TrEMBL record:
It comes from Natronorubrum texcoconense. This is Pimeloyl-ACP methyl ester carboxylesterase. SUPFAM superfamilies: alpha/beta-Hydrolases (SSF53474). Gene3D superfamilies: alpha/beta hydrolase. Residues 39-201 form the AB hydrolase-1 domain.
Length: 214
C-alpha cells in the first residue's frame, strides 16, 4: 500500500485470527463494515480474498464506502479455480503445507524470476512450517469456495474499479469483464499476460490504474 501513502491515509485491515468455522465472506464483510463505521467513509481496496469480501461491503455496507476497488477477484471462483482451492483445502486439512505453499506460488506467479526464486526458497530444508493458525487457512479456503455474489452485483452502489490479470487461473477474465458491466457504476481493467500475481508482477500498471481511479 506504500504507493498510495503519499496521497491517502492508508489503513491496512487484515483478517482476524482464529476465525469461527463456517464463517462466510459476507459475515467477514460485516466485521469490516464495523471497522469502516469507526473510521468513517473510505475508499476500499480488496485484494484477492479481500476482493471477495469487498463485494459484500459494496452490497451490504455501501454507506461506508466512497469508492470500491475489487482487485484480483471475480464474483466467484472459476471452475479451474475451484479445483485449485479444493486441492489446497484438502492439503491443509492433511497438514501438507508444502503442497499448499508450492501450489500458491505456481498459481500466483507466471513463469519467471519470482516464481523460480520462491520455488527455490521452498526447497530449503525446514523452511516450510505450519502456519500459526492453520484452521484460519481452512476456513478461508472454504469461504472462497462458497462465495458467489453474481446475483447481487447490480446492487453495488459505490463507483467501482474491477482490476485483475487476464490469465488468472482462479478467476475467469470473462467474469471480471461482466462485473464491470453488471455493477452500475463500474469499469474493468485487465492487466494483460499476467495472472493472480498481477498486483506484484505488474505493480506499476496496477498501482497507477488504481490511483487514477481513486
Amino acid at each position: 500500500m506504500r504507493p498510495f501513502a503519499d496521497d491517502f491515509d492508508v489503513y491496512v485491515v487484515k483478517r482476524p485470527r482464529d476465525m469461527p468455522d463456517g464463517i462466510t465472506t459476507r459475515e467477514m464483510a460485516r466485521n469490516y463494515g464495523d471497522v469502516l463505521a469507526e473510521i468513517g467513509p473510505a475508499n476500499v481496496l480488496g485484494l484477492s480474498m479481500g476482493g471477495l469480501i469487498a463485494q459484500y461491503l459494496g452490497i451490504d455496507h455501501a454507506e461506508h464506502v466512497q469508492n470500491l476497488v475489487i482487485a484480483i477477484a471475480g464474483p466467484r471462483l472459476s471452475e479451474r479455480g475451484r479445483e485449485i482451492v479444493s486441492d489446497w483445502l484438502a492439503a491443509g486439512r492433511d497438514g501438507d503445507w508444502a503442497n499448499v505453499y508450492v501450489g500458491s506460488i505456481e498459481t500466483t506467479y507466471s513463469a519467471g524470476t519470482k516464481r523460480a526464486a520462491y520455488g527455490a526458497l521452498l526447497k530449503i530444508p525446514g523452511i516450510i512450517k505450519e502456519p500459526p493458525y492453520p484452521n484460519d487457512f481452512i476456513t478461508s479456503a472454504q469461504a472462497c469456495l462458497d462465495h458467489d455474489a453474481t446475483g447481487e452485483l447490480d446492487t453495488i452502489e459505490p463507483e467501482t474499479l474491477v482490476i485483475g490479470g487476464s490469465e488468472d487461473r482462479l478467476f475467469d477474465a470473462e467474469d471480471l469483464q461482466a462485473m464491470g458491466t453488471t455493477i452500475p457504476n463500474a469499469r474493468t481493467h485487465l492487466i494483460e499476460n499476467t495472472g493472480h500475481g498481477a498486483f506484484e508482477e505488474r505493480r506499476r500498471e496496477f498501482c497507477s490504474t488504481v490511483a487514477s481511479f481513486l
